[in-house]
């Protein structure tokens, strides 16, 4: 039998030169890890270097292994011992099947330890991993576990409205039971808690950040959300729309929108992370990071199967579901399909965008503790986001903008404040800088007009009255500010204008062009 062929059939394996009868823990920890995971094999008679050395007495090794497993393992794992002849040497394969009654413990030396596989090592399970093993051994999933929350104490307005909007059907309270969100005794399951309007599960959180550049350095915008899973999905999509741009292409009869991300691909990726993440990680949350050239979503928990997604073809990825109730509900809401085609859809939707190149194909990565989706911008150009536009020359500046001219502040004061707003400021900080005392007057006469014009934006656009609300200068505002403070002759060229507006959204580009043409005529 060829060793390479044997290893190709193993999900994991260890080599042991000999059976250490007096140190059973040295190899039984691998038996525990394999049984607690996807299974695996130990090969006795092969050194760590992969060189076959053989065993003197295979029968004795088999008998000793059986005794040690019976004496030191609880519960007993399902194993198979297979002798092989390799290069004239006798080798024993101890095949350990994935167990159905986890956790599988090594019991000895005054210890009771369950092991898990991390890379090519077998290590003691952490508290979080033990929770997952116990759930696995009970043949239950996290989302199906009962809580102490009573259904009468919670409302499901967000779920009901979403159901009606996406299915064109009226919501019926009986769906809570049929969907698996409520037990027959009136308690919420964890899935029910995640869909409740006032979700009390602290790990149901979302962190969103728009970074300046290609790495994590200065944050242009950031938001944190907690609670209902549908609310998190809505806020995530809102953050993406507010912090990505839509390019455009000039056509003879108008302009054609060219978004840098396919909305359906982003939605599919976010749904995938919210549904398949590991909710047993109490300090974990979904992270949405937007850079100039890519969008990255990260969530706790690797592939439910334990495999590494980067080692598989998309067509080979099974539809194993860590949270089947969540997946079923999202399928009922038409957010996802049951047949496990989400990753392929992300790739296909991105591929359909104008400007797509093979090197922009979405990337999926996983470890034992996290899953990552990377979607690349089809509108990013490392040298310059070139946009064809008619030559326009600005002769005036921010001070001529009709909204700026009507503000209650002087133009120099406004310019200085806008300079500071490259970093988000609270309304109180803005007011104090300008020496204003009346908060309502300041908001109505200064903040609101700037927001309406797109010069300033809120850090929490979906929660205008948020106590942590701040305001920052948009890319559009930065262009106007740059025109104001620079020498006019240095920017009076098509190339300079292209560079200045390359990061703006479609509507913002149109605004700048309209303003520049207006100023030119003046």
SSE blueprint:
Elements: H1 3-8, E1 13-16, H2 25-36, E2 40-44, H3 58-72, E3 73-74, E4 79-86, E5 89-96, E6 105-108, E7 111-118, E8 121-124, H4 127-137, E9 146-150, H5 157-167, H6 175-178, E10 187-189, H7 190-195, E11 205-211, E12 219-226, H8 229-243, E13 246-251, E14 254-259, H9 263-276, E15 286-290, E16 294-300, H10 324-332, H11 342-351, E17 363-366, E18 370-376, H12 402-406, H13 411-420, H14 427-434, H15 439-453, E19 456-458, E20 471-473, H16 475-485, H17 488-491, H18 494-501, H19 506-521
Parallel strand pairs: 1-2, 11-15
Antiparallel strand pairs: 2-5, 3-6, 4-5, 6-7, 7-8, 9-10, 11-12, 13-14, 15-16, 16-18, 17-18, 19-20
């Amino acid at each position: 039998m060829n060793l390479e062929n044997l290893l190709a059939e193993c999900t994991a394996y260890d080599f042991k030169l000999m059976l250490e009868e007096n140190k059973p823990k040295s190899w039984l920890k691998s038996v525990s890890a394999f049984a607690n995971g996807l299974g695996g094999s130990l090969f006795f008679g092969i050194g760590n270097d992969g060189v076959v050395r053989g065993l003197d007495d295979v029968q004795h090794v088999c008998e000793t292994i059986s005794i040690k497993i019976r004496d030191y393992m609880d519960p007993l794992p399902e194993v198979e011992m297979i002798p092989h002849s390799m290069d004239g040497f006798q080798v024993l394969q101890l095949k350990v099947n994935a167990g159905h009654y986890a956790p599988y413990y090594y019991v000895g030396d005054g210890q009771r330890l369950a092991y898990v596989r991390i890379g090519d090592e077998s290590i003691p399970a952490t508290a979080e991993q033990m929770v997952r093993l116990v759930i696995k051994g009970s043949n239950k999933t996290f989302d199906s576990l009962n809580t102490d929350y009573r259904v009468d104490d919670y409302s499901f307005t967000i779920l009901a409205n979403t159901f009606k909007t996406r299915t064109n059907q009226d919501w019926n309270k009986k769906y809570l039971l049929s969907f698996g969100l409520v037990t027959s005794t009136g308690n919420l399951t964890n899935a029910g808690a995640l869909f409740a309007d006032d979700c009390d599960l602290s790990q149901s959180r979302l962190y969103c950040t728009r970074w300046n550049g290609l790495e994590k350095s200065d944050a242009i915008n950031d938001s944190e959300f907690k609670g209902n899973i549908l609310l998190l999905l809505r806020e995530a999509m809102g953050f993406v729309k507010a912090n990505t741009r839509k390019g455009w292409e000039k056509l003879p009869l108008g302009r054609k929108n060219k978004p840098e991300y396919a909305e359906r691909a982003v939605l599919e990726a976010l749904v995938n992370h919210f549904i398949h993440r590991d909710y047993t990680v109490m300090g974990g949350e979904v992270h949405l990071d937007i850079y100039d050239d890519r969008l990255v979503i990260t969530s706790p928990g690797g592939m439910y199967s334990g495999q590494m997604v980067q080692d598989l073809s998309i067509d080979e990825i099974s539809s194993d579901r860590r949270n089947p109730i969540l997946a079923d509900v999202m399928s009922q809401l038409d957010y996802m399909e049951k047949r496990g085609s989400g990753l392929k859809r992300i790739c296909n939707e991105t591929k359909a965008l104008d400007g797509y190149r093979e090197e922009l194909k979405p990337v999926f990565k996983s470890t034992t503790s996290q899953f990552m989706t990377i979607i690349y911008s089809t509108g990013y150009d490392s040298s310059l986001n070139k946009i064809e536009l008619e030559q326009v020359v600005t002769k005036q500046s921010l001070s001529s903008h009709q909204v700026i001219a009507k503000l209650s502040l002087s133009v120099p004061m406004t310019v200085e404040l806008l300079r500071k707003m490259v970093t988000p400021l609270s309304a109180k900080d803005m007011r104090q800088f300008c020496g204003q005392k009346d908060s309502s007057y300041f908001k109505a006469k200064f903040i609101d007009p700037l927001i309406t014009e797109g010069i300033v934006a809120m850090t929490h656009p979906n929660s205008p009255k948020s106590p942590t609300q701040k305001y920052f200068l948009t890319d559009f505002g930065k262009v106007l500010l740059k025109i104001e403070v620079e020498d006019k002759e240095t920017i009076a060229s098509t190339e300079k204008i292209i560079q200045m507006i390359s990061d703006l959204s479609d509507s913002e580009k149109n605004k700048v062009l309209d303003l520049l043409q207006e100023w030119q005529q003046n």
